[in-house]
Design goal:
Largest sheet: none
Oligomer: single chain
Length: 161
Amino acid sequence: MSSWTWPGQVATFRKRMLSTAAVLGVAIAGIALACMVVGLGPGWITALKSTGKVNDTYSPTTKIGFSISELLGAVGVHVDGALLAGGVRILGLAATGVLALVMMLRSPRIGIVRATGIMLVAYVLLWALTPQETADLATLPSQTKRAAILLHRLGQGAAGL
């Protein structure tokens, strides 16, 4: 159960925000404590600044940005592919954030498990699947095969933690 749904369905927005802030505070303190225990300094936080500098086409949002740039170039409008891909990634991140907010607000009504599931599927489709796997999801007839691809990619992501 998340901090958003702990107070119950009739809780006020203020009470939900307070419980969410409390969980966030405990999580930050827990991460800080774990880093101190294993001797990991705060350098990993500053290293996160450079993660967006890689312009590979493994995420669908990046591929869409570069593809739009190529299509525009074919009709004579020259746009920097990396700049356009960055813009599409920002739009994808914004869409994911909006969906996360909507699912958080609806979680007391639809259930935390369903809300989390919807959010994770959106994340995987926007960020974790390669363009080929995304295309395969649209064309495969078997739900089992689709689920296998999703589980495979989720497993790869979890292995990197």
